[in-house]
């Protein structure tokens, strides 16, 4: 399939060519014709597969026809869960819409109101926003949605996770019922499905690859770590490798992100932190530096890294495992963008057993353990019946006699012998529908 066959305006096609794209990705090939035909969409595809263009291109196509309305409010509204994602979508809208001279505006929390008020008082084609700040403006009567033609919810699942559901529904209720609605999400299950039922009209469902699909182009490695000191040595070893063009290191907390970034910087690495406590200006500057290659190691929390699209990222390192299994999929999706290959490394300490298992259950496959010679774990980690990964001659650590040693994992797999932790008989697993935040 070619972009030409999608019936897009020649000026849109020109911007696609200028972007260097030769053919649509699977989600683009399926979503664009349906969206251009005017259908509501409920779409999901793996990270890094070009979902942004899948909704921006049909939005731009709409803009090639003049609005019958005399009002100046936005014709397209895109809602995203995070500021970074909003910025990226806005840049994409600008990039693909250059030839059409579309007026795009981005409304984010953490930015000064007076400038936003001014932007909102001018004619707007595409408005990209995070829900919280948009609600503020809406309640102050600063936005006119009377001519809105299309509402896009990007990463709808994440918006729900982050508690934006009421805001999203309030915003949707302020837009004309005649609008077209496109919903993009990593998963289309449960709550997202219910939201879709309320906001979409006879939607077409497009599911390119399931969340559980293997990221074939991303090599996933597991490193067992004994303690924090071991973890730090391992991290230093990995990022010292010249193969690491750029890396994102994920930590659980903002404080750890700051601390680790500082430590790495002190060790001479071009490192910086990215998390939700930084002001927007600082976050933007960090991402710009990352894109320019001025930062090689970004230490981030989940919230700040969601949707981040930096082509140079060769490695994702889960210094701490994510709290929620689906975040694992989003994290590793920061590498291997647009068909490139990438490496995702996860550290698992004895206390991470349950977490690790949830992740593996969610993705549907075990992460192959790797050992770095000289940095072998000393403690016994989970016994496994899966085959050791033997890439580059690294074997899986195996303990011959774990009796008396600490084991940590209440594994439901058959024991390989010597595994002495008695089963409690209780299933301590938590379902993924049950998200306590
Ligand atoms: P997603 O939202 O699915 O995670 P993005 O929309 O951020 O993915 O796109 C990921 C990367 O792929 C971006 O760098 C984008 O420029 C690139 N890309 C998008 N569409 C194409 C295409 N048709 N051909 C090549 N690269 C593309
Ligand atoms: Mg996206």
Short account of what is shown:
The chain contains 15 helices and 14 strands.
Number of strands: 14
Low-confidence runs (pLDDT<50, min 5 residues)? 384-437
Calculate the terminal CA-CA distance, rounded to whole Å.
42 Å
Backbone shape: globular
Number of helices: 15
Please state roughly what percent of the residues sit in beta strands, choosing from under 5%, 5-15%, 15-25%, 25-35%, 35-45% or over 45%: 5-15%
The number of distinct structural domains comes to 2
- Spell out the CATH superfamily of the largest domain: P-loop containing nucleotide triphosphate hydrolases
* CATH fold label of the largest domain: Rossmann fold
Q: What small-molecule ligands were found? A: adenosine-5'-diphosphate, magnesium ion
Please state how the strands of the largest beta sheet are arranged side by side. Answer: 3-4-2-5-6-1-7
Order of helices and strands: HHEHEHEHEHEHHEHEEHEHEHEHEHEHE
> What is the percent of helical residues?
25-40%
Mean pLDDT: 84
Q: What features would you highlight for this structure?
A:
437 residues, alpha/beta, Rossmann fold, seven-stranded parallel beta sheet, 15 helices, 14 strands, 35% helix, disordered C terminus, binds adenosine-5'-diphosphate, binds magnesium ion
């Amino acid at each position: 399939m070619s972009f030409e066959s999608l019936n897009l305006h020649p000026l849109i096609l020109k911007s696609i060519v200028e972007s260097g794209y030769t053919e649509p990705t699977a989600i683009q090939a399926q979503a664009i014709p349906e969206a251009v035909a005017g259908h509501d969409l409920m779409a999901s595809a793996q990270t890094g597969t070009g979902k942004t263009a899948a909704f921006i291109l049909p939005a731009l196509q709409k803009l090639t026809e003049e609005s019958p309305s005399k009002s100046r409010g936005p014709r397209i509204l895109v809602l995203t869960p995070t500021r970074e994602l909003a910025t990226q979508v806005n840049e994409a809208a600008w990039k693909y819409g250059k030839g059409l001279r579309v007026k795009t505006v981005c409304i984010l929390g953490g930015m000064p109101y007076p400038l936003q008020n001014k932007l909102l008082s001018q004619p707007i084609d595409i408005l990209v926003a995070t829900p919280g700040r948009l609600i503020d403006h809406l309640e102050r009567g600063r936005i006119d949605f009377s001519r809105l033609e299309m509402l896009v919810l990007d990463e709808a699942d994440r918006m729900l996770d982050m508690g934006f559901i009421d805001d999203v529904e309030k915003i949707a209720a302020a837009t004309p019922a005649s609008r077209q609605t496109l919903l993009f999400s990593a998963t289309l299950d449960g709550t997202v499905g219910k939201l879709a039922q309320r906001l979409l009209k006879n939607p077409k469902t497009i599911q390119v690859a399931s969340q559980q699909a293997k990221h074939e182009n991303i090599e996933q490695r597991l490193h067992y770590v004994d303690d924090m000191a071991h973890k730090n040595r391992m991290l230093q070893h990995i990022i010292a490798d010249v193969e690491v063009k750029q890396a994102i290191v994920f930590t659980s907390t903002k404080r750890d992100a700051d601390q680790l970034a500082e430590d790495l910087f002190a060790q001479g690495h071009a490192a910086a932190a990215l998390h939700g406590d930084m002001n927007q200006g600082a976050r933007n500057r960090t991402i710009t530096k990352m894109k320019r290659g001025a930062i090689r190691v970004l230490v981030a929390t989940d919230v700040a890294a969601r949707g981040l699209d930096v082509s140079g990222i060769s490695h994702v390192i889960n210094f701490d495992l994510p709290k929620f299994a689906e975040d694992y999929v989003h994290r590793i999706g920061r590498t291997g963008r647009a068909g490139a290959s990438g490496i995702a490394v996860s550290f698992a300490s004895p206390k991470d057993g349950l977490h690790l298992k949830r992740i593996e259950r969610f993705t549907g496959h075990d992460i192959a353990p790797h050992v770095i010679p000289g940095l072998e774990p000393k403690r016994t980690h989970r016994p496994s019946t899966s085959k050791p990964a033997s890439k580059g001659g690294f074997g899986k650590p195996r303990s011959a006699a774990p009796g008396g040693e600490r084991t940590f994992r209440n594994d439901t797999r058959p024991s390989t012998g010597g595994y002495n932790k008695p089963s409690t008989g209780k299933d301590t697993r938590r379902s993924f529908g049950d998200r306590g935040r």
